[in-house]
Structures are given as structure tokens and as C-alpha cells.
Design goal:
alpha+beta
């Protein structure tokens, strides 16, 4: 009986020694952020709510965790070391980085489409044309975006049924027009910034015009971000 008691005590001692060390190993040098709804998070001198406060952390503040044990995390923040309650911090993820990368990629293909389009300035208009030997309006837009890595539907009306409507266009957004009266989309252009659009027109071929052009402005239907 005595041997069993001693064995249990030995096992308990091993567990209490190993668990903190494992916790420390898994948390060492890991970046966390302060997860609170309001106010600030107290960083204390020792793992106790009665310990002195060495600094305070705002919501979202990044901290480096060196170890965690019994509901407390040893952290480094604001140039100071201390302890915070583990329930008020969370591991940083790469979600933000992924979103940033996606946004950068999206911006890049719009910028590239404009660059491709400018390389076609002066190309003559050709109904049904989709190549530099001649473009119609949607053929020109589709060509520019395809070269930038983004496939679009073939016609202006089909393009209008994609993307998100925007009230203030940004470079790379698509501008739609009704050239036959009413609200039926029959023409598409690329907004290039500074109040200008780039498109293939029957009169000038691929050209740049002002959005305030007396012909185009009253025929404007809306802008879409693809």
C-alpha cells in the first residue's frame, strides 16, 4: 500500500514538473494580441491579481509570450516583462496578411489592365474585335483584363452583371453606358483615374476621354468594381 502511495506521489510530481515546461516550450516567443472588449489589460509583476501593475495594454496590442501556466501568461510588452491572464490574450493569425495579399493582387491586376490598355491606344475600332488588329468596346476591355490575369464576360451587358456597383470609381473600375437610349448597357470603358476613361470608340478607336465629355456623361449608367 505504501509503495502505491509513493508511486502516485512520484507520478504527480513528474506531471506538475513536465506540464509547465511543455507549456513554456509551446508558447516561447509566440506573438499574441490583447483580446478585450474595452479598457486596458493590466500586466502584473507576478501571476496574481494582487500583484503590482507594471504596465497596461490596449485592445489589440501585440505581446510576446514566453510561457503559460495555471491561467497566467508571462509576457513581454512595452519593453517590460510581467504576467497577464491567459483568457485575455489570443494567438495572432495570418488572416490579416492573407487579406492584404489578396487586396494587393486585386489592385495589381487592375493597374496592369490599365497599362495593357494604354499600350493599345490608337488601335482602330472593329465590331466584334478582340485583338490588337481591331477592338470593339468590350473586346478591348476583355483583352486588357485578360492580359492582366482576369477573365471577363464577352459583352458589355454581361460585364455589367458582374462585380460590385460603386458610387466613386477607382482606377481599374469599369464604366458602363447606354448609347442607344434608355438604360440598356451597350458600351463599357475602363476608368483610369483623374476623371478619365479609356475605351474603344467607333469614331476614334482606342482612346482616352473625360467622364464629363458632353456625349458620354449623359449616357452613363454606372460603375462596377470587378
Amino acid at each position: 500500500m505504501l509503495k502505491r502511495i509513493l508511486a502516485v506521489l512520484l507520478l504527480f510530481a513528474l506531471v506538475t514538473t513536465i506540464v509547465p515546461s511543455l507549456d513554456k516550450a509551446s508558447a516561447a516567443g509566440t506573438s499574441y494580441y490583447v483580446k478585450i472588449d474595452s479598457g486596458s489589460l493590466n500586466v502584473r509583476k507576478s501571476p496574481s491579481t494582487k500583484a503590482a501593475i507594471v504596465t497596461r495594454l490596449a485592445k489589440g496590442k501585440t505581446v510576446t509570450v514566453s510561457s503559460q501556466s495555471k491561467g497566467w501568461a508571462k509576457v513581454t510588452a512595452n519593453g517590460k516583462n510581467g504576467y497577464v491572464s491567459s483568457k485575455y490574450i489570443a494567438k495572432k493569425t495570418t488572416t490579416t496578411a492573407k487579406k492584404t495579399t489578396k487586396k494587393a493582387t486585386t489592385t495589381n491586376y487592375r493597374t496592369k489592365a490599365i497599362s495593357v490598355g494604354k499600350g493599345q491606344l490608337g488601335v482602330k475600332y472593329r465590331w466584334g474585335g478582340t485583338t490588337p488588329s481591331g477592338f470593339d468596346c468590350s473586346g478591348f476591355v476583355g483583352y486588357s483584363f485578360k492580359k492582366a490575369g482576369k477573365a471577363l464576360p464577352r459583352t458589355a451587358a454581361q460585364m455589367y452583371n458582374t462585380g460590385t456597383r460603386v458610387s466613386k470609381p477607382a482606377p481599374g473600375d469599369l464604366m458602363f453606358y447606354a448609347t442607344s437610349g434608355g438604360r440598356k448597357v451597350t458600351h463599357v470603358a475602363i476608368y483610369i483615374g483623374n476623371g478619365q476613361i479609356m475605351h474603344a470608340t467607333t469614331s476614334k478607336g482606342v482612346a482616352i476621354d473625360s467622364i464629363n465629355n458632353t456625349y458620354w456623361k449623359p449616357r452613363f449608367i454606372g460603375a462596377k468594381r470587378i
